[in-house]
């Protein structure tokens, strides 16, 4: 192999190493921001499912995380491209277009992973559906979960974890969402509606009692939820959802920050090819 070939291979290896390091930096940045957002949520009382302000705050937290992730990738790439003599030189600032692109890409990936709920970046409010919620089964009013439902919920607990904190330990609790007291107005009313007759169920439907679902819940979160619902206070628990989604979203920001034009050209070429094949087949 000639000198030209070796240089090309060295350049390719260096580019791959730069991309890998930039993606790692952007992943760590996004995930760290997600953890920080969760801690801030604990302090100011914003959790997954908090109405209105929770949605606005989560959009802001995800956007800021994505913007910082994209910039961290560019800083790593820029630093590796500098000579040793100029290594301490400050890199050029990113443009507004870069920021908007980072927010769009990182936010879109996080939104997809969180199934349309950006507030999963915040801690779980134990009185609402948790940030770690994946699967649920319909509940028959305020009645307890059946044996078959408990077996199903137990499988989900071992697979996905508690819908609030993500713990996979201990026995499963079939957690009514919304909680019985909130759905029926009081614990006594919820108890009175167990094994309710068909006319009573119809009356509940007419007066707007929400349809409930069972989610897998661990015993510690169940105990905390009991206190929260009984006292009317908000109780939050942490989870790893934002961290996990942040790793993937940050990686997407990183690779797009370095190779956006190449990716866009590749997509445009394949779309044009698909259109050509579709047109010729008609």
Question: What this model shows, in words?
Answer:
The protein has 2 domains: 3-123 and 240-281, no CATH class; 137-237, no CATH class. The strands form 2 sheets. Strands 2-4-3 form a 3-stranded antiparallel β-sheet. Helix 1 packs across helix 9 and helix 2 (53-81) crosses helix 9 (241-281). The protein is built from 9 helices and 5 strands; from the N terminus they run H-H-H-E-E-H-E-H-H-H-E-H-E-H. With 282 residues, it is mainly alpha-helical.
Number of domains: 2
Spans of at least 5 consecutive residues with low confidence: 83-91
Radius of gyration: 25 Å
Net shape: globular
Q: Helical region count?
A: 9
Give the helix/strand class. Answer: mainly alpha
Q: Bin the strand percentage.
A: 5-15%
Provide the residue-averaged pLDDT: 83
Order of helices and strands: HHHEEHEHHHEHEH
The N- to C-terminal Cα distance equals 48 Å
What percent of residues adopt helix (DSSP H or I)? 55-70%
Strand order of the largest sheet: 2-4-3
Number of strands: 5
The profile of the biggest β sheet is: 3 strands, antiparallel
What's the layout of helices and strands?
Blueprint: H1 3-44, H2 53-81, H3 96-113, E1 124-125, E2 137-138, H4 147-159, E3 173-177, H5 180-184, H6 187-192, H7 198-206, E4 213-217, H8 219-231, E5 236-237, H9 241-281
Antiparallel strand pairs: 1-5, 2-4, 3-4
Helix pairs in contact: 1-2, 1-9, 2-3, 2-9, 3-9
């Amino acid at each position: 192999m000639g000198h030209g070939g070796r240089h090309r291979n060295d350049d390719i290896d260096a580019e791959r190493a730069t991309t890998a390091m930039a993606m790692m930096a952007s992943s760590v940045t996004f995930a760290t921001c997600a953890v920080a957002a969760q801690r801030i949520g604990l302090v100011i009382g914003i959790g997954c499912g908090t109405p209105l302000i929770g949605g606005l705050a989560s959009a802001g937290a995800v956007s800021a995380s994505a913007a910082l992730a994209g910039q961290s990738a560019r800083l790593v790439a820029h630093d590796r491209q500098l000579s040793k003599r100029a290594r301490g030189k400050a890199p050029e600032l990113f443009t507004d277009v870069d920021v908007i692109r980072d927010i769009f890409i990182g936010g879109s990936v996080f939104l997809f992973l969180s199934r349309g709920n950006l507030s999963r970046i915040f801690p779980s409010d134990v009185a609402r559906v948790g940030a770690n919620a994946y699967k649920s089964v319909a509940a028959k009013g305020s009645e307890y979960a059946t044996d078959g439902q408990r077996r199903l919920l137990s499988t989900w607990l071992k697979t996905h974890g508690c819908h609030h904190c993500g713990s996979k330990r201990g026995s499963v609790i079939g957690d009514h969402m919304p909680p019985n007291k909130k759905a029926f107005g009081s614990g006594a009313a919820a108890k009175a509606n167990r094994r309710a007759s068909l006319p009573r169920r119809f009356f509940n439907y007419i007066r707007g009692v929400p349809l409930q679902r069972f989610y897998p819940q661990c015993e510690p979160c169940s105990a905390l939820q009991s206190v929260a619902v009984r006292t009317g206070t908000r109780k939050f628990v942490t989870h790893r959802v934002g961290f996990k989604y942040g790793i993937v979203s940050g990686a997407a920001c990183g690779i797009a920050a370095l190779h956006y034009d190449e990716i866009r050209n590749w997509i445009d070429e394949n779309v044009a090819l698909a259109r050509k094949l579709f047109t010729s087949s008609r």
